[in-house]
Write a structure and sequence with these properties.
Layout lengths: L8 E5 L6 H11 L3 E3 L3 E2 L14 E2 L2 H9 L3 E7 L2 E6 H9 L3 E4 L3 H10 L4 E7 L3 H11 L4 H15 L7 E4 L3 H16 L8 H9 L1
Parallel strand pairs: 1-7, 1-8, 2-7, 3-4, 8-9
Antiparallel strand pairs: 3-6, 5-6
Helix pairs in contact: 1-7, 5-6
The structure holds guanosine-5'-monophosphate.
């Protein structure tokens, strides 16, 4: 039998530059049943970012209207800009047994946990050192030195939230980090409460 189940909300959080996007991309390439939640933001696109793929880029007025109408599961202000998670795609995916990955910050994690307490499984990714984190931020090349300083300060603040997460992975080697996140996802899929067809299946075993 192949049991039906509810999808997993896999939150992957990290300070900017810890390698979160690479870990998430690697995991998505391995897991066809996993889709990425595309957030709405009021920040401007970076070079190469596409509307509807990396983010839904919206004006502050459009963002506020969406939040007020209940269209967002959670939202927060990060670096002075608004970021939020659209509600409908997530609820549809979970009900259909599809897993959703969230690249959100610690506030988003707390908010999403409140909104979907039975669905969230969270992973926090730490850089192997602060030096490695700064190198990764500089390698992007798209942010000004002042912006990098701001993101470094924000990274230290983000790291203080490590203990709020279910799992912590130190990203020393990308491939190992991807294997670890994948293991978390696979275990979460097997959680008893997510396997919605189990009561009926077990009833046939003990009848
Ligand atoms: P960036 O501007 O570098 O793409 O993202 C900045 C921060 O916003 C990151 O820490 C990212 O995880 C967070 N973020 C992205 N989308 C969301 C969202 O939908 N909700 C919340 N709370 N944070 C988000």
């Amino acid at each position: 039998m192949s049991p039906q189940r509810r999808g997993v909300c896999l939150v992957i959080a990290a300070p900017s530059g810890a390698g979160k996007s690479s870990v998430t991309a690697g995991l998505l390439a391995l897991e066809p049943n996993l889709t990425r939640s595309v957030s709405v933001t009021t920040r401007l696109p970076r070079p190469g970012e596409r509307d509807g793929h990396d983010y839904f880029f919206r004006t502050p007025a459009e963002f506020d209207a969406l939040a007020q109408s209940g269209g967002l599961l959670e939202w927060a202000t990060v670096f002075g800009r608004s970021y939020g998670t659209p509600r409908d795609p997530v609820e549809t995916a979970l009900a259909a047994g599809r897993d959703v990955a969230f690249d959100i910050d610690w506030q988003g994690h707390n908010n999403l946990r409140s909104a979907l307490p039975r669905d969230v499984v969270s992973v926090f990714i730490l850089p192997p050192s602060l030096h490695a984190l700064e190198s990764r931020l500089r390698a992007r090349g798209s942010d000004s030195p002042a912006e990098i300083d701001r993101r470094m300060a924000a990274a230290r603040a983000e790291i203080t939230h490590w203990h709020e997460f279910d799992h912590v992975i130190v990203n020393t080697a990308l491939d190992d980090a991807i294997i670890s996140v994948r293991a978390v996802l696979q275990a979460a899929r097997l959680a008893t409460h997510r396997q919605t067809s189990l009561p009926g299946f077990v009833a046939t075993l003990i009848a």
